[in-house]
Amino acid sequence: MSKRKSSSVSENVNKRVRPEQEEDGEEEEDENVVSDAGIVESITLKNFMCHSLLGPFTFGSNVNFVVGNNGSGKSAVLTALIVALGGNAQATNRGSSLKGFVKEGESSADVSITLRNKGRDAYKPEVYGQAIIVDLRITREGLRTYKLRSKSGQIVSTKKEELISILDNFNIQVNNPVSILTQEMSKYFLHSKGEGDKYKFFMKATQLEQMREDFVYIRTTKHVTEDKVEQQNECLKDLRQRYKEKEERYKSLASLDEMHTKLAELQKQMAWALHKVEEAEKKCKQIQEQLEGITQQVQELQPKCAELKTQAQRHVFNILYLCINPHFLSISRTHSFAVAIAFVVSVMSSRSSNITKWAPPSIFRREQEVLQRSIDSNRRNLQTLESSRSNRLRRFGEHMPALLSAIQEAHRRGQFKHKPLGPLGYLISLKDPELALAVEVCLKGQLQAFTCDNYEDEKVLQGLMARVFTGGRRPTIITSQFLPRLHDTRKKAVNHPEYPSVLQALEIEDSVVANCLIDQRGIESILLIKNRTVARRLMHGKNPPQNCFQAFSIEGDQIFTNRAYSADQTRANYLSGDVEEEIRCVRVRACELRMNQHLLLTSWCCSVIISSTFPPYGPHLEVVESIACCLFVPLQEDLNKAEQEMIKCKHHKKHYDDKRSTHLRNIQSLEADLGSKEQELQTSVSKATEICPERLEVRRSARSMDSEINRLKVKISTQQEQQGDREEVVKQYQEALETYKNLTQQMKNLNSFIKSLDSVMNHRLQVYAELRRFLSARCKYYFDSMLAQRGYTGNMAFDHKNETLSISVQPGQGNKADLSDMRSLSGGERSFSTVCFVLSLWAITEAPFRCLDEFDVYMDMVNRRISMDMMLKVAAGQRYRQFIFLTPQSMGTLPVSKIIRILRLKDPDRGQNNAPTNQDEDQ
Where is this region: Disordered (predicted)? Predict the structure, then answer.
């Protein structure tokens, strides 16, 4: 085979195309010829391959022959057409890279193709007009850029995606060998001896191969999607967990809102409580009147106490004297004993107030034991109070912190179903500190008790208590199911306009604790009334408060509707807020106990001295002792009661003296500041009106409300620190909810899509198999028809399972049994059979134009003529489709027709291009 060489750059200008036609080239085409959209109207090449300038070539709408000898540029036109319409370098079989198409010595190559854009299949005719111009530039580096212009030359787009849309609209398939069949593609597929290659050619031409690849890709994508769905299901579980956590934090904001609402309400009430100066004055007067009454009572009780004490001492002395006197005569003979008796009498006379020193030894021991127990108990109370300065929990017992730590550790280990709560007194607080003693007497043992949800938890808690409390009394355990909401007590609770119930007086954060006290003590039905007289009058009246079965005064007195009991307890041990005052009282009591112990010890020593000094008179003294013992005990009890009453009165007197002095100072200060307070009152009223225009009736003191406001602020601040910023919590919850919903919906859509895809793919595969069978049958039919035009017979056998195509041809009229493989045919016969095969594929595929490069190179004159007539006949029957044939033949024997256009290329000048790098493609 010969090779053609390109001319030099300087002579490329003279090497131009001379379009010729068998008839007048400018003659108008037949009006009945309808050209489809997407055909090639013209093509121009600049610095492409070895050509400086080729074109512009103007193609006819039906049959076009590009005629020229080797090296004239026929294959360059076909290669430019493939590359300009998006094909890669490998598809041209002319190189492995685009930069190889740039002419040697030039920086870039340009190709311009004009596509017809008419008819119903036109692409954006309102934008491009009746033609679309595709300009391609290839740089020396191998970069490819596009410019898509309208018919007027205006640039519409520079994106390859737009070009792909245009090609899809026109159904132009540059990689389809039926649309553009190059020499190399023809050699590989058509002239190959392998049956598998012919089958591949059939599959590629009919786009069945592309469909099969798409199916494989879809199936692979489906498997990948299923794997991702499986992974996303795991992620969805984690996402759901995070969403639930965000939801819990979001729901906890509701309690925070309630606290904010309560705080705002308290602040409104506080605003109106701050200006109550008149009420403070009234309260001072009431306290002063009460103080005067108590002072008068103390003054009345003091003479009575002194008289009782004197009478008791005198009575005891007389009895002792009478008991000793009968024995005095019997022992008077002994002078020393007489002196001793005189000494005893004198001692009794001088120290008659210390009656206990003449008590019998058994009395000494009992009193010593009682005193020692009181001293020990007092010491323990003092230690507890002093340790509770830094830790309020120690008020409930020195082992209580250790017990709570053990409970916390057991809960962390999962030993409890629900963590026990306690001590209950530690989990409540008073709104009004003055009611501490009343509430403490009311609740009694419940203050140190613990509550459990179930009996299994109770057993675990008992084990912990046994380990912590090695000796002594353990706290009570109350077992009751934990409920998240507070009991509805509206029907059973007492509701008095002036006096609160125990439930109303307490601040209880945990509903479980409140429910426990309601169930165990009925705190919703117990009133707290500060004045005992008012309490007795209210409860013993004809119409006691509804739902109220008992009340407690500020002193701890318990008043029922038909009886009342005084409290044994004089101060609050657990709920009082003034620890220092309690410590002072305990220390005073300790001093009194130590003094009594000293007096008792002194009396006992005197008794021992007397017994050892007068041993002969022991029996007589024993008689005296036994008589005195019978009289001493009741007198001692009376004296103790009198002394206790006197101590209590002194304590009350001192207490009220202190309060009286304090209140007198407060009254003086209030009177001095009354004028300024009146002005402040007006200011406060104005400010309160600004905060809350509607005046509120405030029943609580400003101090208690201020304490509750501060507590609420601390609680709100703590909860906000734990939860974070409110807006951030809401934002995170909404984002988590949205993400969870979106992913859930995506998973649902993906599962639905996969299910639908299975159904669609099964249907498509059935359609694919049916389409393949149908196209195979049509290809056989047209192949037989084409062969019959020359009198040939043949057969096409498709084996879709093994992917082979066997073609058998019998030249001339003969027996079909004599059909032979194409490999046994002559070159011309084989080329003719190949043309029939190509034409049969043309008949079953769609494309706006067909291009064949040197289709007749292996044919003799007879087969060339027959093949040409067949192709022209096919073209005449498809006037809407364009055909471009590249051939080195002169085509002088073509019939005269208006649908045929011949483009003759000038022969190359071979004398000026001898460099091997400028060689053109093989013929």
Answer: 1-34
